[in-house]
Predict the structure.
Amino acid sequence: MSPSADTATKSDRTRARLREVALESFRERGYDATTVRRIASEAGVSVGVVNYHFASKSALVQELYLDVQQRHRDAAIPAMDSADDLIDRLAAVYRTGLDALGPFHAHAAEFVAAAMAPASDVNPLSAESAPARDITEALFARAVAGADAAATRMLPADISDRLPAALFLGHLLLALFWAYDRSPDQERSRRLLTRGLGLLRLALPLLRLPLVRRPVRELLDLVAEVRS
């Protein structure tokens, strides 16, 4: 939580200003054109001051991730909590996630390229990205936990406990497709989501069958391996 205007120190205010300038630059100029030097210039401080508050450009990207996911959470919770059906609740999380990313579409490929670099600490699966990632995974956990009894009966505990991590991975894959989607308003990404959720609705009743449950559990274990 940011300090209030009354209690914030000069250092707090400087940090908040730098964060604000950086986030606006990421939105308007993208990843490549946003540099520490540019942020310092626009904020009216030295590069050293920026580096004092944020050790690197990557640290500012993490602030961007947090901002996007906090906005995602604020939109997703009321949308999902107005529904009882599991698929409708998941749809609310995924769709509001795409909405939160919307302002960055013009430069999305730049962020993807930075995240894909070897040993990148702006990779969404990196340790540095954990705070933003935890927000999104918590949304999927809430979507599953708050679904109606019919969905709960279809999801064995060993499946439902692992499901949020897999749903988060699906969110990343959807965002990757969205980043390169040149259809008007990224309609293809939303159609892909609708069709994928439709398939999930058909598959849910099968999860109680031992023949299906075991390979799904093993698949979710693989997802956990990717996440670790």
Summary: The radius of gyration is 20 Å. The domain at 58-227 is CATH 1.10.357.10 (Tetracycline Repressor; domain 2). The CA atoms of residues 119 and 126 lie 9 Å apart.
